[in-house]
Write a structure and sequence with these properties.
The protein is of the alpha/beta class. Helix 3 links the parallel strand 9 and strand 10. Helix 3 packs parallel to helix 4, helix 7 runs parallel beside helix 8 and helix 8 runs parallel beside helix 10. The longest helix is centred in the middle third of the chain and has 18 residues. The protein is globular and about 70 Å long. Bound molecules: dihydropyrimidine-2,4(1H,3H)-dione (DUC) and zinc ion (ZN) (2 copies). The site of dihydropyrimidine-2,4(1H,3H)-dione (DUC) has 9 residues, from loops.
Length: about 475
């Protein structure tokens, strides 16, 4: 039999094209795209459905340890299930190196957590918090060779921040090894200075998280990171960009010919600083970094998506329960400084961008696919195996009902968190089936992959960095 499965009469959408066709799947790969396929034991009618490459969420945190009393509300089982229900087939969580720890030891722990628990494919970025000569000179080159081809660095947080010299050393090592650097661009000292000043005035409610790290903090760090990338001649990705000023830094750098990429996230499109100003500790549910900002900043994030300043749209899923082990530790009640930074969003990323973007006419269907799947695969070395619908690619597919109307409700979600910051948001468009390598993982509200079939993905070096190396 030529095919295992045929998806019939769907509207296939890639980053480039939209057309009605049948799609034949064999041995987990797309085997044919044609006008009238037949001969398969399973035929799925996709009339009036969009058939798109499964979402790739290249920025999620799963089972990542935080401060001592805080627990992340997600393991690889719940996180990858929720991702599948949200139309995703690959996620890229972070593997956090603790100070003094080797990268290999950090990876051993994360692989153990993920092994056998993933319902979709997974690949780790490395967070470098201790970039000593052994890490940069020996471990990193070997790990890049082994398919760990991206690293994240932080310009803030007590236990993660890198000094400017360290940032430069990491970027120089990236230049040598081909690792692609993702930057959390907020300045440590500026945040500390403003936080201390706010606390001295008794301003400790969750709402003050925003003023403790205003747009200028992010703009300054973005500018600094871009300048360092220019000096060391490496492409970088500025992640979770929240505002106009930071977006314009990236835009300016790109106009000058620098290979700087940008990422934004749902929270910067549909939440604002006012959400952190809700009664009592409710505002803590929206505390993430960078924080949600103004309506004008939302507009800027849309402009960045529309004009390609941002090439990837990720969730930055970083879930902490609204409970004693998450947002509401005894310390958090003393002041916003102690509220864990991060919100859930792995399951709602695609519906939010589809509804606010495609259904409301802000972006095209093809831009939607590029921003949620294709560009992630390209930037992080998974293309063309992932990120498109093409003969030979993995049959990672989401079937989408563009007309389905839903109101986002925590009761319907599958993540490990006990709330969603998007509660009550009305959306048009919802994933109705997610397939991983030709096998149905979720259909409607049912999980069909009872045995997790997700694989760990080794990645090629990013084409951005391989071009740099070739210079
Ligand atoms: N950075 C992230 O990437 N995620 C959550 C918190 C943070 O600071
Ligand atoms: Zn970050
Ligand atoms: Zn993050």
């Amino acid at each position: 039999m030529p095919f295992d499965t045929i998806i019939k009469s769907g509207t296939i959408v890639t980053a480039a094209d939209t057309f009605i066709a049948d799609l034949g799947i064999k041995d987990g790969k797309v085997a044919a795209i044609a006008s009238d396929l037949s001969d398969a034991p399973t035929v799925i009618d996709a009339t009036d459905r969009l058939v798109m490459p499964g979402g790739i969420d290249s920025h999620v945190h799963i089972a990542q340890p935080g401060a001592v009393e805080v627990v992340m509300a997600e393991d690889f089982n719940s996180g990858t299930q929720a991702a599948a229900f949200g139309g995703n087939t690959t996620v890229m969580p972070f593997c956090l190196q603790k100070k003094g720890q080797s990268l290999r030891e950090a990876l051993r722990i994360y692989h153990k957590e993920a092994e056998g628990r993933c319902h979709i494919d997974v690949s780790f970025h490395l967070i470098l918090t201790d970039p000593n000569p052994r890490v940069l000179g020996q471990e990193l080159p070997a790990l890049v060779e082994e398919g760990y081809t991206s690293i994240k660095v932080f310009m803030t947080y007590d236990d993660m921040v890198l000094k400017d010299r360290e940032l430069l050393e990491v970027m120089a090592a990236a230049r040598r090894t081909g690792a692609f650097v993702m930057v959390h661009a907020e300045g440590f000292d500026t945040i500390r200075f403003l936080t201390d000043a706010l606390e001295a005035e008794g301003k400790t409610a969750p709402h003050y998280h925003g003023p403790s790290r205003p747009a200028a903090v992010e703009r300054e760090a973005t500018h600094r990171a871009i300048s360092f990338a220019e000096m060391t001649d490496v492409p970088i990705m500025i992640v979770h960009v929240s505002n106009r000023q930071a977006m314009e830094e990236i835009e300016r750098a790109r106009r000058r010919g620098l290979n700087i990429s940008g990422e934004t996230c749902p929270q910067y499109l549909v939440l604002t600083e006012d959400d952190m100003d809700r009664e009592a500790m409710e505002g803590a549910k929206f505390v993430c970094s960078p924080p949600p900002r103004s309506n004008d900043d939302q507009d800027a994030c849309w402009e960045g998506l529309q004009h390609g300043i941002f090439s990837v749209f990720s969730s930055d899923h970083c879930p902490y329960r609204f409970a004693e082990d998450g947002k509401l530790t005894p310390k958090s009640e003393q002041g916003f400084r102690w509220i864990p930074n991060g919100i859930p969003g792995i399951e709602t990323r695609l519906p939010i961008l589809f509804s606010e973007g495609v259904s409301k006419g802000r972006i095209s269907l093809n831009q939607f696919v590029a921003l949620t799947s294709t560009n992630h695969a390209k930037a992080y070395g998974l293309y063309p195996r992932k990120g498109s619908i093409a003969v030979g690619a993995d049959a990672d597919i989401v079937l989408w009902d563009p007309e389905e109307k839903r109101t986002i409700d925590q009761a319907d979600l599958h993540h490990g968190c006990d709330y969603t910051p998007y509660q009550g948001l009305e959306v048009t468009g919802w994933p109705v089936m997610t397939m991983l390598r030709g096998r149905v993982v979720t259909q409607g509200d049912t999980l069909l992959s009872h045995t997790p079939e997700g694989e760990y993905l080794k990645r090629d070096v990013s084409p951005f960095t391989s071009r740099t190396q070739a210079l």
